[in-house]
Write a structure and sequence with these properties.
The complex is a heterodimer of chains A (about 80) and B (about 600). Chain A is mainly alpha-helical. Chain A has 2 helices and no strands. Chain A starts with 13 loop residues before the first helix and ends with a helix. In chain B, helix 3 runs antiparallel to helix 13, helix 9 runs antiparallel to helix 18 and helix 13 packs across helix 17. The chains are: A mainly alpha (about 80), B mainly alpha (about 600). Chains A and B meet through helix 1 and helix 2 of A and helix 6, helix 11, helix 12, helix 14 and helix 15 of B.
């Protein structure tokens, strides 16, 4: 069946793609490199570093993803102007 | 969540203070649970009227909720879908039994999964919306023009989902056992509550489709958040976080009879790779599960998915706090003997709640867990049914099925799937479901390359992808089978724990040595690397030999299309008057691929 044409292929600008991958990559690396945080100290409020470090990244990772989302949105908005 | 329970030997559950098993039924807890069950059941049936479409008899409506869920509904739906009752029971259970590597890895796992889906899920959403794909196998079929590859993806999805549904029942069983129902003598009468719960669930899923779990998820998550906030305040005030962590550290360092530590409090050098590979492998696998994709495709536009990637970590925060309840149970000296007299770490969380909360609030917590099982069980059965209908029934049995017939077949299949899972749990030992769930995680990751690489490139050859999938499946299954551990059970005899030896059992761990090293990593990830290696080499060979690789039904723009563009239906019919003028036939869904 024939479908209406979509707007032309819209790859994001290179600068936006780089920013998105950096923003998304930082939390992944911060978490996957376990030796960074596999220690008991410094404890905060009784929490070993190993545990509170990961708790902090749960929240911070959301901020990084939200930032990546904003980068995509702005790049798209520029596209349409 | 995959692989969670795999590694802890039951023996580790032997608690220090014995407890009389087989108390009577706790009436207050039971009443609270029944009350919430009735509330969500009513909601489940009423969900059929929620945003009621003009033509509810199609897979787009029944199986994807009309593809019109906004940010908030999608957030609850995905949250309810990914963070299951089994997770709530099994992650703290693993923390309780063997500590961080087998339990807390769920936290890094759910941190890194969202940046990953941020990259690929909008593309899958777009191409699925543009071509009317309902399942990941639909996409593979269209992209690679290969019925065999699509069948492989569909069958893998169904196989991986079935034991997952069964484990949701195991989660409910843990709650029922704590309340004082079920347990010894696996008779039908003892399991009657479970049977009733599932029959009601099956009935409203049948009538309301994906709208039912979407609505119930609100109740489930409100209860869960409430319970976890109260639990954390209790732990902070009554136990103290420092004391809690110290108690856990002490237990994990205690030597077992075999002379090895009970578990891991903080991963050491030899388990860095285990920890990160479990997190990475599970993260890559999570959104290959059919139920995750079903919930994602039901979103109304691309931005709904991206926004959710940013806000879903709130659930991970809850999961992390709940995981620590496993440690709190250690500090509280909670015992985990079930009504059958055997130690079962999965009882750690329900028993802890029963120990420290008044009965009515423990009832709320149990209701949260039980409802937490119903939401994903519904979505999983819908997702498995969609796979069967689209990629087996329509592909091989009745190619000219109408949307109405598709919806009907899916509804019936969802019943079969649910009662299959119920039969499985009631007749076989729990360990079988857990083993299959471990395998399911290994299997589902083997579909990653065909689905996700396909969203970005058509370079891979369809036969190479099929070969890579097959190699990964076989390798992963064999290696997982070979992980034997002593099969010990701890039974309470006259108030004292006695360890019974039952030889060894297979599927004892989700970790295995990486080939040619002495480092243990997640089996699924090793199998996946092998899968990629085979696919890359064979693609090069097949391309060099110029073997035909089929016609790609998609075009590059399809991967960027969004709601509201030409050829992409923006408004689904139930969204209100906007679509009222649309052609009635189209309202059953976007253009169907042929």
């Amino acid at each position: 069946m024939s479908q209406p044409e979509l707007p032309a292929h819209r790859q994001l600008p290179r600068s936006a793609v780089v920013s998105v991958f950096v923003l998304l990559g930082i939390p992944i690396l911060a978490i996957l490199i376990v030796p960074i945080y596999a220690s008991d100290g410094p404890r905060v409020g009784g929490w070993p570093f190993f545990y509170w470090y990961q708790m902090v990244w749960v929240l911070v990772s959301g901020v990084f993803t939200a930032a990546a989302f904003q980068v995509v949105r702005r790049a798209r908005a520029r596209d349409e102007r | 969540m995959s692989a969670v329970l795999a590694a802890h030997p039951a023996a580790a559950a032997a608690a220090s203070v014995p407890l009389a098993a087989g108390k009577g039924v706790n009436g207050v807890e039971l009443a609270v649970v029944v009350f919430f069950f009735l509330v969500v059941s009513a909601g489940g049936f009423l969900a059929a009227r929620w945003r009621r479409p003009e033509n509810p008899n199609s897979l787009d409506e029944w199986g994807l909720g009309g593809r019109g869920f906004g940010t908030l509904v999608t957030w609850f739906l995905l949250g309810g879908d990914l963070y299951t009752a089994y997770t709530f029971v099994a992650v703290p259970a693993a923390m309780f039994a063997t500590g961080a590597v087998t339990g807390f890895f769920a936290v890094p796992y759910t941190i890194i999964v969202y940046p990953i889906i941020f990259v690929f899920m909008p593309r899958l959403w777009s191409v699925a919306r543009r071509h009317g794909y309902v399942t990941p196998a639909d996409f593979v079929r269209g992209r690679y023009d290969s019925r065999a590859l699509a069948l492989a993806v569909a069958v893998t999805g169904i196989l991986a989902t079935m034991p997952y549904i069964a484990l949701q029942l195991v989660g409910i069983q843990a709650v029922l056992d704590t309340i004082g129902l079920g347990g010894s003598g696996n008779t039908l009468a003892a399991d009657l509550p479970l049977f009733i719960a599932f029959a009601v669930l099956a009935a409203y899923t049948y009538s309301s489709g994906l709208r039912a779990p979407a609505l119930i998820a609100f109740v489930k998550d409100t209860l869960i958040y409430l319970v976890i906030v109260v639990a954390i305040i209790y732990i902070g005030v009554k136990i103290g976080f420092g004391d809690m962590f110290d108690a856990a550290e002490k237990k994990m360092a205690t030597k077992t009879k075999a002379g090895t530590p009970t578990g891991t409090f903080i991963p050491g050098g030899s388990t860095y790779w285990a920890y990160s590979s479990l997190a990475l492998g599970s993260a890559l696998a999570l959104f290959m599960y059919p139920h995750s994709i079903t919930a994602s495709l039901s979103a109304k536009n691309r931005n709904t998915i991206r926004r959710n990637a940013a806000i879903l970590p709130l659930y991970s925060l809850m999961l992390a706090l709940l995981a620590l309840v496993g440690y709190a149970a250690i500090a509280n000296k909670t015992t985990v003997f079930g009504r059958d007299g055997y130690a079962n770490p999965q009882l750690a969380v329900p028993h802890f709640f029963q120990d420290v909360f008044p009965s009515w609030f423990a009832g709320v917590a149990f209701a949260a867990i039980a409802i937490g099982a119903l939401v994903p069980a519904a979505i999983m059965s819908i997702a498995a049914a969609n796979l069967f209908t689209r990629n087996i029934y329509r592909e091989f049995i009745k190619p000219d099925a109408t949307p109405r017939q598709e919806a009907q077949v899916s509804k019936i299949t969802s019943l079969v799937v649910k009662f299959g899972a119920l039969f499985f749990v009631l007749t076989l030992e729990r360990q079988n479901a857990i083993n299959l769930q471990l395998l399911g995680g290994v299997w589902i990751l083997q579909t990653f390359l065909a689905i996700v690489a396909g969203l970005f490139t058509r370079w891979f050859h369809r036969w190479a992808l099929l070969a890579g999938w097959a190699v990964g499946m076989v390798y992963g299954t064999v290696v997982a089978y070979r992980q034997t551990v002593p099969n010990t059970k701890t039974k309470l005899v006259n108030g004292a724990p006695v360890i019974e030896n039952h030889g060894t059992r297979h599927f004892g761990s989700s970790l295995a040595y990486f080939p040619f090293t002495d480092t243990k990593v997640y089996v699924a990830l090793t199998a996946f690397l092998l899968n990629v290696l085979v696919a890359v080499i064979l693609t090069s060979v097949l391309r060099a030999l110029k073997v035909a690789d089929g016609t790609d039904a998609t075009s590059p723009q399809d991967y960027y299309s969004d709601a509201g563009e030409p050829g992409v239906l923006e408004e689904m019919p139930f969204e209100g008057v906007a679509a009222a003028g649309g052609p009635p036939d189209q309202s059953s869904g976007p253009a169907r691929p042929r």
